[in-house]
Amino acid sequence: MARVTISEKYCTVNPLKMSPSIGAALAFMGVDNSMPLLHGSQGCTSFGLVLFVRHFREAIPMQTTAMSEVATVLGGLDNLEQALVNIAGRTEPALIGICTTGISEIKGDDLRGFLKLIRANHPELDDIALVDVSTPDFQGAFQDGWAAAVTRMVEELIEIPQFESRLSRRINVLPGCHMTPGDIDELRDIFEAFSLDPIFLPDLSGSLDGHIPTEFTPTSLGGISVERIRRMGSACWTVAIGEQMRGAAITLEHHTSVPYKLFGRLTGLAACDELMGFLSEISGVPVPKKYRRQRSQLIDAMLDGHFYFGGKRVAIAAEPDLLFTMSHWLHEMGCKIQVAVTTAESPVLESIPVDEVLLGDLEDLEMRSVGADLIVTHSHGRQAAERLQIPFYRIGIPVFDRLGAGQQVTVGYRGTRNLIFDVGNLFMANTHEPTPETWIPKRPQSNNLVTLQLLQ
After folding, report:
1. Is 389 exposed, middle or buried (0-12, 13-18, 19+ CB in 10 A)?
2. CA-atom Rg of the chain in angstroms
3. CA 143 to chain centre
4. What is the C-alpha to C-alpha distance for residues 335 and 311, in angstroms, rounded to an integer?
5. What is the 3-state secondary structure (H, E, C) of 398-451?
């Protein structure tokens, strides 16, 4: 069992942690025709906007209530009201997701009370879903904001169905923020191969998958519709991916009586086998030949790659669920986790295959990575890898110095195999073979020296 400790430094150097408010904003972007709205200063929104544009290389819909110093002291009702009315009039969204920030939380703005007053005075907002979520900058991290936003959408939008209206083939899927649009596309193919109708909440594969729209829209370009979210109560099962989604799955079960199954990760042979077995059981469909062959291909890739993974020391810094996924997969491939740094507390941290998990920053990662064979984190870890001259694998958010971060696939048999090839090739490229200059054979001792040693 890993020991979880907190860095005792007085300041953060080269931050790893990101705000929960932008995690919530990203979750709202997985809903079609939606607009995330950050209730705070313009700088809070500008930071998230730049981060997402650099990572996804797409147009990002985000707005702000632009609170000034006076509004922060007196309260943000007027700013929120003006922002909602302007967004409704100019963009006509189906949903506006309102995320709090540090200044609005410290002031103590009653967001739900504000929304009741605003709705009473503005009937033009009646057809727009307004979902508020508490995401203070000083509590939690990116994945906590994502999880809170999904939970609030479950509470506000899903309708309670009659038991007779349940659909035996419909299944809800709650993916964690560590899953890319490419991962969600891969999972959709897997669920549909078992004749299931999956509903993903959120669905970034529809909005941030890198497609070109036929016409410009100021809101999100796709994803799950609000109407489809409302019908999630008619599903037969809910699949939650990542410990961060447990709360949303429990809320959905209490609200609609739909049972849930939590998968801590979907990367690795055993994890994929568990998913396939579960889907076959609830659908009554045998595992398709396509995935039986992919499983065989994964095993072959594991056999090919274990020569290069065995005994390698790896340093990882990521959000808790992504850290859990990568550390267990690398451990299964024969690596030793030298360093594990994360952003926030989570029940999964104690099960990380390492002696200590540190809640810290990328400076902590760099200081503890000396002698490692690989560093795994997002793009802000590149300077540390360069200084230490250690191979660097980019994963998570943000990845802004490589193309295709949103299309990266690491789930399922195929995604796990791709991960083996990508990381294995890094190990191969940095293997130092002995040369005549570095290999000095051990010279045999002379007879005189041997005789002297025997006499002694």
Report:
1. exposed
2. 25
3. 7
4. 5
5. CCCCCCCHHHCCCCHHHHHHHHHHHHHHHHHHCCCCCCCCCCCCCCCCCHHHHH
* pLDDT, tens digit (0-9, with 9 covering 90-100), for 409-425: 999 999 999 999 999 99
- Report whether pLDDT(288) > 50: yes
Q: Which amino acid is at 290?
A: K
Mean predicted confidence (pLDDT) in 310-331: 97
Q: Is the pLDDT of residue 436 over 80?
A: no
- Give the integer Cα–Cα distance in Å for 111 and 441: 74
In whole angstroms, give the CA distance from residue 17 to residue 372. Answer: 22
User: Tokens at residue 396, please?
Assistant: 């998570």
Residue 30: which of 159, 173, 135, 169 has the closest Cα?
A: 173
For residue 162, is pLDDT > 90? no
Residue from 401, 370, 406 nearest 385 by CA: 370
What's the half-sphere exposure (Cβ side, CA atoms, 13 Å) at 343?
A: 28
Q: Which H helix or E strand runs over 456? A: none
| Burial class of 163 by CB neighbour count within 10 A (0 to 12, 13 to 18, 19+) | exposed
pLDDT of 69 = 80
pLDDT tens, 209-218? 988 888 888 9
DSSP annotation of 101 reads -
pTM: 0.92
Domains in the chain: ranges and CATH: 20-140 (3.40.50.1980), 163-292 (3.40.50.1980), 299-429 (3.40.50.1980)
Helix 142-157 and helix 20-28, axial crossing angle in degrees, nearest 10: 40
Pinpoint the alpha helices (H) of 166-283.
181-193, 204-207, 226-230, 246-256, 269-283
Chain segment 14-61, per-residue pLDDT in tens? 999 999 999 999 999 999 999 999 999 888 899 899 999 999 999 999
What is the C-alpha separation between 369 and 341, in angstroms, rounded?
Answer: 11
- Classify burial at 351, counting beta carbons within 10 Å of its beta carbon; exposed 0-12, middle 13-18, buried 19 or more: middle
Can you tell me the distance from the alpha carbon of 377 to that of 364, in angstroms, rounded to the nearest whole number?
13
How high is the pLDDT of residue 443?
Answer: 54
